[in-house]
Amino acid sequence: MPENPLLREERSLIRRPASHATVRGVVLFPGPYTVGMSSLAVHSLYTLLNTGQIACERAFVETPRKSVFSLETDTLLRDFDFVAITSSYEIDWLGLPRALQVSGIQPRRTERSRRPLVLMGGPAVTAAPLPLSELYDAALIGELEPVLAQFREALLASDPAACLEQLAAVPGFYVPELHSRPAPGALQRRCALDLDAFEAVSAILTPHTEFANRFLVEMGRGCGRACAFCLARRAYHPLRWRSLPHLLASVRRGLYHTTDLGLIAAAVSDYPDLDGLCHELARLSLDLRVSTSSVRLESASPPFLRLLARGGQQTVTYAPEAATERLRRAIGKPVTDDEIFAAIERALAAGLTRLRLYFMVGLPGETDDDREAIVTMARELSGRFRQAHFRLNVGAFSPRPHTPFECQPMAHPRSVQSWITALSHSLRPVKRVEVSAGSARESALQCLLSRADERVLEALCALPDEGLGTALRGLRAVAGRELELLGPRGATDPQPWKVVDFSCADTAIST
Ligand code: SF4
Q1: DSSP at 142
Q2: What would the pLDDT profile of 161-183 be if each residue is shown by its tens digit?
Q3: How far, in Å, from the CA of 175 to the mean position of ligand 1?
């Protein structure tokens, strides 16, 4: 069998799947390789499940129309004992039923044979487990580490039915076939309380990702800020950081393989001993090139920005989200204009001359003036900072479950798209400012899917491959008039996502 060309360019930092294992599984990422291999969740699952009698491979959905084979042994999905799907965004669900079907697995649980078991986890399923509950055999609500031992043990059970019975007995797993439909708050979210008890780092280096050949190190989970639109803050609550010695030990391990380091956290610059970390990283290797997933305006200190610039990084990403102080306060991001300008000055002083700024339109309480203020701010930035180049990413607000904005309406995708188009047009003449526009349809689909219930699988299975507009119309048709899922949700409207209790169950379990 010829080796997959992607494998030839990979450097594995862990043992490859063992050929003598008794249980064979595959981590399925419901998107392309380049995106999936940028996700630490894929690396972690692959590492955690390749152990003892379990051999785990990887597979990616490049296009839902083509059968999916594993990367390592070119095995079709249907020939594994289990398929473990990690899903960060609801938008990935659009192609998932089709991808399973063309890979020999019926997407509806009741219509398929017992093997392979289809298991799901990740923030999208944690936040809204019901929409795909007719598809998966079991879903994990929350993080894997606190239930890892029971999960591995269940995978080694004598048969799939026994595996599901074992999983159903573990708080955090939802097994639709064995559990009754959950009442509000019935599903407990699991989370690892002590991050120093384990590592979450790259398992494989590859040039074909956003973080090409970078060794990724997870610094922490959760976020101490209170942005009212943000699911990440709720999905990874409470805020937890790895200690400095633990982080440095992980980085040293990475340095055996590469000098490119990627620090991953919801808000990397909020790390409690940020300057201490910068000092230690600078001492570790003169060649170390550090990059990050995200930076908070207020907490990005000069030593931290210099560390990023030292390795050749030119770009830093900030997310003001709104251009007026009033709206920023209303969405829980109370940063002043002066703080934004000061942060940009600090970035430029450190040598970071390319600034990516994230804004949203369609936010609750937003007015025409707030949108116009994005143009005013861009003009001011361009005039004030002549050595800088700005890229404004303008996306559409989508109300996320389990956040303070969960019941807010989503503005009609056509209106949102017209606002984004008008902004792009107004910003075109502004020097050194580029705009990259988000898709209102994608945000609408995300909202619709996260607010849906089991009935949505029918629509997902029937979706043609004709783009987001068709998908949106198809899903709305199934949702029906009485379930206008993009509208405001009142107290008497169904809120299927509420079946999850988003407080961390492990806080109670450990006390
Ligand atoms: S700072 Fe970022 S991760 Fe934290 S709550 Fe705000 S948007 Fe979410």
Answers
A1: B
A2: 999 999 999 999 999 999 999 99
A3: 31
Domain ranges for the chain, please list them. 5-192
Please tell me the predicted confidence (pLDDT) of residue 271.
95
- HSE on the CB side for 277, CA within 13 Å? 27
Distances in Å between the Cα of 227 and the Cα atoms of 327, 332, 405 are 12, 4, 10
What is the pTM for the complete model shown?
Answer: 0.93
- Of ligand 1's listed atoms, the one at least distance from the Cα of 223 is 4
Contact between 121 and 137 under an 8 Å Cβ cutoff? The reply is: no
Q: What is the pLDDT of residue 473?
A: 72
Residues in the chain where the model's pLDDT stays below 50: 481-483, 511
* Alpha carbon 243 to its chain's center: 23
Return the amino acid letter for 446: Q
Q: For residue 55, report the phi and psi dihedrals to the nearest 5 degrees.
A: -115, 130
Report whether residue 297 contacts ligand 1, using a CB cutoff of 6 Å.
no
Domain 5-192 part of CATH 1.10.274: no
Ligand 1 centroid vs 294 CA: distance in angstroms? 10
SS (H, E, C) 235-298: HCCCCEECCHHHHHHHHHHHHCCCCEEEEECCCHHHCCCHHHHHHHHHHHCCCCEEEECCCCCC
The pLDDT score that the predictor gives to residue 242 is 97
User: What's the angle, vertex CA 108, arms to CA 105 and CA 109, rounded to 5?
Assistant: 85
